[in-house]
Specification:
binds D-malate; globular; four-stranded antiparallel beta sheet; alpha/beta; seven-stranded mixed beta sheet
Length: 399
């Protein structure tokens, strides 16, 4: 049997499957401990009621011959693509043609599937640490990426340099896992660099909704020149609580063309129409309702809820004198492992001592070896309980 042997380069389990496995093992051994999960970036607030109502209505339509919808357009219904284009206009004052927006089942799959439209010999570069999907989807294809390291010296926000020679550059802003965010001029450096090198930026904007400083760009298309070098990948998951519904979108500008005039928008549509049958009508109607005034107001409240959790985590870390970054324009806090432990040691130690599940930084790359990540996505009550447990841990150590 001729299998894809590149899969053998992957760790045995995907990071969050490994975390879930170890958590289950711990729970089996300690059934009396109530475990608090602050690991995977999964939301806890329910969907806004206006979204639920829209989906209920869409379900009802599916029950009648007159209003029934079978296969939809593979790239998404025009009314949803129009709503997203309007949102870009309102939020970032930028004009995106609805035909440049292609609806999908989420950012994770698009980030991996986009590789289909590039030459198999194209080289890639990404940050270390990084969202594991970028790395693993490339390893599956037999690619060995270049890394630009996020270190204390660059404030965990690496900028382009001559060492980076790749054709495809992944950027995640606000960054997962570090929770830090590029300034406009820093992003401009990446855009200029990509254009000079004729490289393409795959820009993961899944956490853009957490940026609350109007001076920071929420979309890479706020930067001059980005329409010539960047694809922006977005998600309804963190923004509107769709982790269980599955919906996202990718913007491929029509101005993104190869030197010989081939449109990347056309290639991505071609890929999607062959390999994907589109997101369900019901879910797309729910996504459309996110952009109504009631929907936008409800998601802002949910984002504020998670930000309050993150602020509580940061205040607790300050009291503990643990060193960390992130948590301002991001649901993630990136913490230096206390006591000089390695990331998995720290994960095990904190799970044993507090019953809290962190994400070990090493799961995001070698630069994460001495870090752990926390999310503000759990409930406020659980976040409070977790913070109390961390403070107690410190207290007990003193006595
Ligand atoms: C995470 O880092 O927790 C992930 O982004 C979860 C996801 O795949 O969305």
């Amino acid at each position: 049997m001729k299998i894809n042997r590149h899969y053998l380069q992957l760790p045995e389990n995907y990071l969050f499957s490994e975390v879930a496995k170890r958590t289950r093992q711990f729970q089996t051994q300690h059934p009396d401990v109530s475990v608090i999960k602050l690991s995977i970036g999964d939301v806890s607030r329910p969907l806004p009621m206006v979204v639920v109502q829209a989906m209920k209505q869409a379900c009802r339509e599916q029950g009648y011959a007159k209003t029934f919808h079978g296969y939809g357009p593979e790239i998404g219904y025009p009314w949803l693509r129009n709503a997203i284009a309007n949102f870009y206009q309102q939020q970032s004052k930028i004009k995106i043609d609805p035909d440049e927006i292609i609806i999908s089942d989420g950012a994770k799959s698009d980030l991996a599937n986009l590789l289909d439209i590039f030459d198999t010999r194209a080289t890639v570069a990404m940050c270390d640490p990084v969202y594991p999907v970028y790395l693993e989807s490339n390893l599956m294809l037999g690619r060995t990426p270049q890394f630009f390291r996020a270190t204390a010296a660059n404030d965990l926000l690496p900028l382009p340099d001559e060492q980076i020679t790749a054709d495809i550059i992944y950027l995640c802003n606000p960054a997962n896992p570090m929770g830090v965010c590029y300034q406009r001029e820093q992003l401009k450096q990446w855009v200029d660099f990509a254009r000079t090198r004729q490289a393409i930026i795959l820009y993961d904007a899944a956490y853009a909704c957490f940026i609350h400083d109007p001076n920071l760009p929420r979309s890479i298309y706020e930067i001059d020149g980005a329409r010539e070098c960047a694809i922006e990948i977005c998600s309804f998951s963190k923004m509107a609580g769709f982790t269980g519904m599955r919906c996202g979108y990718t913007v491929v500008p029509k101005t993104l063309v190869t030197a010989d005039g081939i449109s990347l928008n056309q290639l991505w549509r071609r890929r999607q129409t062959t390999k994907f049958n589109g997101v369900s009508y019901v879910v797309q109607r729910g996504a459309e309702a996110v952009f109504t005034p009631t929907g936008l107001n409800a998601i802002q409240q949910n984002i504020a809820y998670y930000q309050r959790n993150v602020q509580l985590i940061c205040r607790t870390l300050n009291k503990l004198h643990w060193s960390y970054v992130g948590g301002v324009h991001s649901p993630y806090v990136w913490i230096r492992c206390p006591g000089m432990r390695s990331a998995w040691e720290c994960f095990d130690f904190l799970l044993q001592e507090t019953g809290i599940v962190f994400t070990p930084g090493i799961g995001f790359g070698s630069a994460g070896e001495n870090y752990i990540r926390l999310t503000g996505f759990n409930s406020y009550r659980n976040t409070q309980r977790a913070c109390r447990r961390l403070l107690n841990l410190q207290q007990n150590k003193k006595h």
